[in-house]
Design goal:
ABC transporter involved in vitamin B12 uptake, BtuC; two-stranded antiparallel sheet; Manganese transport system membrane protein MntD; cell membrane; mainly alpha; 296 residues
């Protein structure tokens, strides 16, 4: 397989997996919590490296997941204690992210784990670091991101009804015995895993866009959750493939170009989507006015 194929494959997995799990954050009005976790997991990654002296994927996933759950717990505790929700998110993620930056500067500045790599990533280098599993050799990022994506699909598939009901009506879900808090932390664990798996490719800042934008775009096309999830995956793949070709043409950042295409798809959908697009609503209202005028 060519270098370009693996870059596009990695970008597609990142955008599809992050966008898929981001749909649930969007429905729960918790997209900023995804932002918080994507930044706050940094100290977990650094501590995992210091403990294991390895950048191996599973170690990073464990460290990030623990800190991601801690972030969610701290935010919820502060909010329950009387702090406004947005303030609780801001206080928690900026504090943890700052701790992570300090730890990187102190203990990990001379290795592959550096602040710029964590913030921006470099997807162009992904095909050069390969791993072999079951006799199949592929880039390590593809194995890691693909595994997290499959895990996300399996967990959501097994708990689909519970996650769906707790997302739309948590009070009703709790009344019929669904463990709403447990479902919440399962989703936060998946967000943490997706974030750290995507670090190597697109970095902490751009992964936020991957979590939010594909789901937000899909939301403009359908009111059905299963269609929204599928649409977010398709939009993520389109963003990755289109972004790579845009970056190759203009010789710019690949991950940045992927998010740029994702943003462009959102704004085009915002204007022209069949049901919720600005232009569609304008022409629908115009037609209704004309019909009303004829009747009167």
């Amino acid at each position: 397989m060519s270098h370009a194929f693996w870059v596009m494959a990695t970008g597609s997995l990142v955008a599809a997996s992050c966008g898929f799990i981001g749909c649930f954050l969007l429905l729960r009005r918790m997209t900023m919590l995804g932002d918080a976790i994507s930044h706050a997991v940094l100290p977990g990654i650094v501590v995992a490296f210091l403990v294991s002296n390895s950048l191996e994927g599973m170690t990073m996933l464990i460290g990030a997941t623990i800190v991601g759950l801690l972030t969610s717990f701290l935010i919820q505790t502060l909010h329950t204690g009387g702090v406004q929700s947005d303030a609780a998110i801001g206080i928690t993620f900026t504090s943890l992210f700052a701790i992570g930056v300090v730890l990187v500067s102190m203990y990990a500045s001379d290795i592959h784990l550096d602040v710029q790599h964590v913030l921006y990533g470099e997807i162009a280098y992904v095909p050069w670091e390969v791993a072999t599993l079951a006799g199949i050799e592929m880039p390590r990022a593809v194995w890691m991101m693909g595994g997290v994506f499959v895990l996300s699909l399996l967990v959501v598939g097994l708990l689909y009804k519970e996650i769906k009901l707790s997302s739309f009506d948590p009070q009703m879900a709790a009344a019929i015995g669904i463990p709403v808090l447990l479902i919440h932390y399962i989703l936060m664990a998946l967000v943490s895993m997706n974030t750290v798996a995507a670090f190597e490719s697109v970095g902490a800042i751009l992964v936020v866009a991957m979590i939010v934008v594909p789901g937000a775009t899909a939301y403009l096309y359908t009111d059905r959750l299963h269609l929204m999830l599928g649409c977010s995956i398709v939009l993520g793949v389109l963003s990755a493939v289109g972004g790579y070709n845009l970056a190759a043409y203009f010789d710019v950042s690949i991950s940045g170009a992927m998010v740029t295409v994702s943003g462009a798809l959102f704004f085009l959908s915002f204007l022209f989507s069949p049901r919720y697009g600005v232009a569609s609503r304008y022409f629908t209202q115009r037609a209704l006015r004309k019909e009303h005028q004829k009747e009167s």
